[in-house]
Amino acid sequence: MDTSSTDAQPPLEQADHSDRRILVTGATGYVGGRLIPALVDAGFTVRATSRSVDSLKRFDWFDDVEHAAADLNNYEDITKAVEDVDVLYYLVHSMGKAKDFEKEEAEIAENIARAAEAAGVRQIVYLSGLIPPDAELESLSKHMRSRERVARILLDSPVDTIVLRAATLIGSGSASFEIIRHLSDRLPIMVTPHWINNKIEPISIRDAIYYLAHCADLDQGYNRGYDIGGGRVYKFKQLLSLFGKQRGHRNRIYSLPFRLPLDTLSGAWIALVTPAPFGIAKPLAQSMAEDAVTHNDDINEIIPVPEGGLLDYPDSVKLALERRSEDNVATSWLDSWRKSDDNPAELLPSDPQWAGQTVYKDTRTKDVDAPAEKLWAVIEGIGGDHGWYSTSALWKIRGVLDRLVGGPGLGGRRNPNKLSKGDRIDWWRVEYIDAPNTLVLRAEMRLDGHAWLELEAEDNGDGTSVYHQTAHYVPATWLGHLYWWVIAPFHTFVFPVMAANIAAAAAATEKDK
Fold this sequence. Notes:
Layout: E1 21-24, H1 32-41, E2 45-50, E3 66-69, H2 75-81, E4 87-90, H3 101-119, E5 123-129, H4 142-155, E6 161-166, E7 169-170, H5 175-186, E8 189-192, E9 199-200, E10 203-204, H6 205-214, E11 224-227, E12 234-235, H7 236-247, E13 252-255, H8 263-273, H9 278-287, H10 313-321, H11 326-334, E14 360-368, H12 372-380, H13 392-404, E15 424-425, E16 428-434, E17 438-443, E18 449-459, E19 465-475, H14 478-511
Helix pairs in contact: 1-6, 3-4, 5-7, 7-10, 8-9, 12-14
Organism: Corynebacterium phocae
Domain NAD(P)-binding: 26-169
Pfam family, one: NAD_binding_10
């Protein structure tokens, strides 16, 4: 087994990979779901595993890969999945889901290694976490101890294993990044545990996928661990501050001047402030008790640095958030969160429900005793002289307040009955119109965030229709979250009344015909 090389590998896209079959376990996970398209694009024959093949169907790459239903606790399932496989990616980690997850993960790793040896697998690739080089196994948190134990099981097996050790992966959807995002957005002032001052070397998910994918392109087997990182070391609190700077706000962070065993409390704090479940927040908080930085750049001996260099943390954050800008949020939910083919930093269907930008919604639906064309006429005529079919006094007050802080207020509309994309309606702008079905208005009032109002007419085909009304609000900072909860009580009667009156207005025009 060779453990080093001075020859840099050619770029992935230049090699011929048609004769290599790659197995990706954890295909529906955060990393696996992003790695597979990179391998497919490089020409590999890829086999994706999941407990159920149905869970793979939501991915765009489903038709481009082989599928294997496999319970990794079942050795027979594993042996079937690894048949004729050259490179096996082991990307499974329970993050404390099972009560005795350390034992379970060790047993799965042993089965993976045994099945891989029997099948003649040439290379195993495992993604683990960065730990201090002299750390004793038992001194690590359960989360990190389990990962390191799995790494050692695989490295001690007869099958060559590359262990890539990384700290926080920066990309929308990763648990660590989402915690950073929510803490920074929601807390302008933080009093934090001591670990906020620990050192960490994050890596962009784009660069992590680059290194992972290139492990399938090596011309010989390797059996050792490699550290991968973004090339710059930060304190964890700097990650929060720099994220806030990227978002246009400032975070004041104060750490306790003494060390306390606050793992559980830290996990509870993170789970309370962010949408991350306690089962994820606690092990991540525990893992932050140690510095997480690279100790060598030996990976460059077998895989060259990405063309153009590694992304630093601010650019990684920018990449992760770029499609959450004002011009793209509306189209993202209108188009089922449109994806870029070459951006692993974006959200995927497999990412947790709490990942990505926070979006508050108020949804109302009303049956209408009129065809959709009558309902659409009311929708298209909304605002201006026709008003907003709700508590007019509240709309007027909101308009006055908006003008006082420099917003457009209630400014009328160009045409009382017809709309085109870009038209202004009071403090709204027509973002999208698909007559006679859908109207999406983007708010231009002064807000700490972005807001849209989506109005739809659904025809039942029997002379009746259904009215759908959804208000979307994306807060920018903690002030935006506070704003939503302050006005939420008013929504309980403003929006229902609006929906009921629009439905009634459409029905009245049908009766008057």
